[in-house]
Amino acid sequence: MSKQFDVVVIGAGPGGYMAAIRAAQLGFNVACIEGWKNPKGEMVLGGTCLNVGCIPSKALLESSENYEKIEHQFGDHGISVGSAKMDVTKMQGRKDTIVGKMTKGIEFLFRKNKITWLKGFGRFVSADAAYVIEVANGDVKEMIEAKNVIIATGSKARHLPGIPVDNIHICDNEGALTFGAVPKRLGVIGAGVVGLELGSVWRRLGAEVTVLEAMPTFLAATDESIQKEAWKAFTKEQGMNIKLGVKIGKVTQKKTGITVEYTDDKDLVQKLECDRLIISVGRTPNTDGLGGENIGLKITDRGMIEVDDHCKTNLPHVYAIGDVVRGPMLAHKAEDEGMAVAEMIAGQQPHIDFNTIPWIIYTSPEVAWVGKTEQQLKAEGVEIKAGQFPFMANGRALGQGEPGGFVKIIADAKTDRILGAHIIHAHASELIQELVVAMEFKAAAEDIARIVHGHPTLSEVVREAALAVDKRAMNM
Ligand code: FAD
Ligand code: NAI
Known about the structure:
Blueprint: E1 3-10, H1 14-25, E2 30-34, H2 47-52, H3 54-72, H4 88-112, E3 116-119, E4 121-127, E5 131-137, E6 140-151, E7 155-157, E8 170-171, H5 173-176, E9 185-189, H6 193-204, E10 208-212, H7 224-237, E11 241-243, E12 247-254, E13 257-263, E14 269-274, E15 276-279, E16 283-285, H8 292-295, E17 318-320, H9 331-345, E18 359-361, E19 366-371, H10 374-379, E20 384-390, H11 395-399, E21 406-412, E22 418-425, H12 428-440, H13 445-449, H14 459-469
Parallel strand pairs: 1-2, 1-6, 2-3, 6-17, 8-15, 9-10, 9-15, 10-11
Antiparallel strand pairs: 4-5, 5-6, 7-16, 12-13, 13-14, 18-19, 19-22, 20-21, 21-22
The protein binds flavin-adenine dinucleotide (FAD) and 1,4-dihydronicotinamide adenine dinucleotide (NAI).
The site of 1,4-dihydronicotinamide adenine dinucleotide (NAI) has 24 residues, from helix 6 and strand 18.
């Protein structure tokens, strides 16, 4: 007789492991199927986020930022330490240690919550009284049965036709996180989140970075005011060479390096010579080999599982969450969907407000936003008022040597309700959360403006931006 579970989660990325933990907390008998192998060949939990995404990229961003601070910023404080040297092997070792701690941490949480980790890849076989799923670990195969299934199989990097990724010279996110030395010339295709974050890491450590972006606009999803400020920071101030409106042609790899042929925004054919190339042009959902066809699961032509607002698929008791379904491909979105689905299975009625999911790009400065941009709201015909305040006028930002950037808050012109908030600053990732909470509680700009903010803190800039919505900023 095969093993039976109340809830089986397929995939142990942030969506899957949070779903499994919440379901176990709610008293279900839970299993999670995961077969990811790390470079040492060990099976690990944590998915893209912990192994080759959020966590390792932030470790490298921190190391490279510290290096850059020594090189370019500590002098202003009167600190001289000679010229900085970067031991890339040690930096990578530190990153791997952090990843190891985090993935082991999930194993601990699984044990603590009595979640069965079924090691291998899951494939639906049939649906009858229960869903029958095969768990395959190489040649070892096991059949299990599930009353409820949560599909959390995530996504993988999208590659471009005719450009084979070996993850040594031509890399997606996996290879780009493991370079053993700083490339002299780094090419990046795609000026999205991965391209800008990982491009920043290697630029700070000394690589000449050229980013080739298909779109004519830079960071199209962000507010135009942020686009301008970020463009200035990344290109003029930091020297990243970003080319917009390009069309990628042939890519050839020789012993001497990689040549990327492309057409520029004036339709002229150009060549980029580089030593390493990162392809960061988005991600595709993981549904290959899942056996969706065996149970009649609806999957779009692009491999995404179809779900409603409550992550319900077309099949009873089958849910899908995270990168494998619609919406932003973000770890915190996957996590919240995971917890919500577990609660739904328990008969609760959780709610996720998709309009208050924050976005953060961990470059320097960081870019963070929640809600809508001024351009989106105007296009929707919403009457708005906006307030903006720069960090330059904030004592804490000056003390920290981080005076660049601003906070912009957009509110409804009549009700004053906050509709969007946009921050560009070294610490935007932490500051945005106040505005996420405000939007979740349907706050008005005046609510933020009337709350006492500690002094001196960067959060005073958030308050000043809220005051500026009513044209009464105090320190400007
Ligand atoms: P995943 O994390 O992709 O996990 C899916 C898991 O399912 C994998 O472990 C996979 O092995 C497993 N799986 C797949 N198919 C099967 C199967 N058939 N059987 C069993 N297991 C299966 N997001 C942020 O919010 N903040 C960030 O800072 C951030 N940084 C990122 C940096 C990089 C370089 C990248 C690439 C992504 C980053 N992301 C970030 C995005 C984030 O990693 C994803 O949104 C998140 O991991 C999605 O979680 P998930 O649980 O849906 O899927
Ligand atoms: P992305 O969608 O952020 O950016 C891809 C970029 O590549 C876009 O600007 C697109 O116009 C461009 N592009 C697409 N095809 C192209 C082509 N043929 N030639 C040139 N440019 C092309 O995707 P990315 O950077 O790969 O990241 C994937 C996802 O992972 C992100 O969308 C995000 O959801 C998640 N992520 C989140 C992070 C965070 O939250 N800080 C960090 C990294 C990734």
